[in-house]
Amino acid sequence: MGTDDMQNNANLLRVKKIVCDRLELDENDVTLTSLFREEHGSDSLQSIEILAALESEFDIEIDQAHLAGMVNVQGVYEVVAEIQGW
């Protein structure tokens, strides 16, 4: 695994931890593609909390228009990665 791959994996794990903390879920219960609302019972307030936590953790600004794609860990990671330039 190259350095970039290891960094991307570390960033993905950071994103997943933030998501699981806000959804109050065990990280082992959440896959990259499991849907927050349909599979884990999350609500729109939790989506806003995830967004705010990501902005704080990564010192970025995420437009709320991105929320539509932030339905699972993979989607959240892709939004953060795009903004961060990973």
Structure, explained:
With 86 residues, the chain is mostly helical. 62% of the residues lie in helices and 0% in strands. The protein has 4 helices and no strands. Helix 1 crosses helix 3 (44-58) and helix 1 crosses helix 4 (73-84). The longest helix is centred in the N-terminal third of the chain and has 21 residues, at 3-23. It is globular and about 35 Å long. 20% of the residues are buried. The model has no long low-confidence stretch (mean pLDDT 95).
Could you state the order of secondary-structure elements as H and E? HHHH
Give the CA-based shape: globular
What is the tally of beta strands? 0
Count of DSSP-assigned helices: 4
Radius of gyration over C-alpha positions, nearest whole angstrom: 12 Å
In the predicted model, the low-confidence regions spanning at least 5 consecutive residues are none
Termini distance?
16 Å
- Proportion in helices: 55-70%
Largest sheet: none
- SS content category: mainly alpha
* DSSP strand content: under 5%
Q: Give the overall average pLDDT.
A: 95
